[in-house]
Specification:
The structure is a homodimer. By secondary structure, chain A is α/β, with parallel strands linked by helices. Chain A contains 16 helices and 14 strands.
Chain lengths: ~425, ~425
Amino acid sequence: MALSKKPVTGMRDILPGEMQVRDYVIGVIKETYGRFGFTSIETPCMENIANLSNKQGGENEKLIFKVLKRGEKLNVAQAQEEGDVVDFGMRYDLTVPLVRYYSNNAAQLPAPFKALQMGNVWRADRPQRGRYRQFMQCDIDIFGEESNLAEIELILATTTTLGKLGFQGFEIRINDRQLLKAMASSSGFSEEDYDSVFITLDKMDKIGMDGVKAELLENGFAPDIAERYLELYRGLEQAENGLDYLREKLGENLESSVTEGLREIIESVNAAKAADFRIVFDPTLVRGMSYYTGPIFEIVMPGLGISCGGGGRYDKMVGKFTGKDVPACGFSIGFERIILLLTESGFRIPNAPKRIAYLVEKGVEGQAMADVIAKAQAAREEGVQVLVARMNKNKKFQKEQLTAEGYEAFVEFYREALKNG
Amino acid sequence: MALSKKPVTGMRDILPGEMQVRDYVIGVIKETYGRFGFTSIETPCMENIANLSNKQGGENEKLIFKVLKRGEKLNVAQAQEEGDVVDFGMRYDLTVPLVRYYSNNAAQLPAPFKALQMGNVWRADRPQRGRYRQFMQCDIDIFGEESNLAEIELILATTTTLGKLGFQGFEIRINDRQLLKAMASSSGFSEEDYDSVFITLDKMDKIGMDGVKAELLENGFAPDIAERYLELYRGLEQAENGLDYLREKLGENLESSVTEGLREIIESVNAAKAADFRIVFDPTLVRGMSYYTGPIFEIVMPGLGISCGGGGRYDKMVGKFTGKDVPACGFSIGFERIILLLTESGFRIPNAPKRIAYLVEKGVEGQAMADVIAKAQAAREEGVQVLVARMNKNKKFQKEQLTAEGYEAFVEFYREALKNG
């Protein structure tokens, strides 16, 4: 039987041109985050299925690629449901594995612990253009830092990295889950409705104030509550300083440390930033995951209007593994989106080594071939990238292909010349 | 329910200290192989289960982690056997995915195509010390190069890389599947017995000539055939030049291009090598996979006596995907073993950036904190790795931990001192 040449549905082969950009970006990320004291770690791509189905992953838990049990533990004929045949699952993000890792290894890790993870994750999403079922994530996280030094360092490290990759004029939007909750609470929403309210609020960018109000009413919320909520957002639009306005408006519904914390993060980031971007308070920023407990943030690229990464504080997740909470805060950059933006903009890798192709006629063998290779070795020692290849029959086409691969110069070696030489 | 802190059975978390070594080694590998014109590629970690069960993978096919079907395609209650519930599998090596990749993308790839792949593979081996069910492989392969220029470049690239990582005095052992077959054939073994004979021959290192002969007889081979076979190997031990000896002994059973090819590879590698190693003809070298069609080779580290990587020519595999064979040759280094050797020998990363930890007293906030961070940013710009962290209550222990992490200097920031300017 002939074998299938295609990758599995929804996943893709990565060609050399894109891989060069990916390798370059990975290098910049590792070096820049390294400067901030983040250390690389790695976890297995599989986790126990119970860890992945614990409600921390929200909608992603419906998209898990599950791994079949093996050996004696597997009895397909007698199995009744998935749980009978599955023990592991492919990770759908890097956060759940990271928290497990921290819980498992805390005794051997420094405090604070600053982790950098780059790795593939898998989600059985419906295949669609530009969205794949295996993709790379790139996260930095800090454990054991309760002050907003964590948020400041995460934002500075991420923006410095983006700057080194050539991005400019982007925006970091920041908000706080406690602020979101206080605004909802003071308007009269009850706690069990927050998730639904925030899903609607998250659409403000697209559907505007009126759209948000209409959807809240559609979802059955009382008109006076919805009105009070929207009134807060209208006031914010007029306010000279949103944080001052909310602190005054929300009064006892909000601890002053929340607005002060946001102000301090924004000011410190502005004072120390090493890239061209703005950091702005965005009271409509929600971020999907319900595990966030404090500040949340997001990267928006100019002109795109879509998120290119984000993160926030999640102080209550380690406790689910160990019974004891540990402050935690993370920032994930949209690695695949960044690669797409770079490749689509014709990005050229800076300081790439010079590339020369040695084309060797068929029949050049023995000592003559050894001489060609020795010459190539000497050039490689000096930092040149040298491809030694047999000259194809269609030399013109071969050179065109190699030029497309980035080869700038060609040296041709012929049997006769080498004999005489 | 409390979640499990442990990684899944047989897989492991990688701690920061080891990851630093891994990242460094990956960097050296990518840079050095790059100089030889190898370009990175990537394939999905999953393949269609039919591609993984096509007998190319030998024993590894019994160790596949299989992936459950999803959605409507899955009906566990009515399923009778594995095939009913499984569609994908985790790759157990990088060769099968690479050949599929080449077959799928050949039109967009240069000729010859020189690929570098680094990625995890999964095998459901019985868990044992030092052997894990997820591990990294690192392969280079050349497609479309029929001459032994491929073998020469693969061996030079691999040995140059090992040299740059500090390894010396190692051995490259080389043989040829055609030579192995000619020796078996001329002794009187029939073709269907070769695999069994080679499995026994592979133990020569451990059980010696007598052991090999005893096992051949045990396996039911005729004494005169076994004796003729061993006689060849005894003759080789005495011979001044093994390749000359075999060429004479095997006569018409062997095309002269086989011994001449090995001689040329050995001489060219010796003439151009950029590391301290020996390349030697080893007529007992077998390499497990039956897909090899020509020269095969293996790295042996001094004193260890175990393989630390290997490869060979496999000219008949692309045809299984496309119906048309393409010359192919690859070399895989034992990435995990190399990491183990380096970490166990107390390897220190050369030219690592200087590491300084800024320890900031609790209560340093606002402008004072922004000043500390700005100072850190300036040092980072100059290439220093700066960790900004809150001073812990037990400052002595914190410094000890950070020293173990490689931090060489500490700067302490106190509220009072900063206030006074």
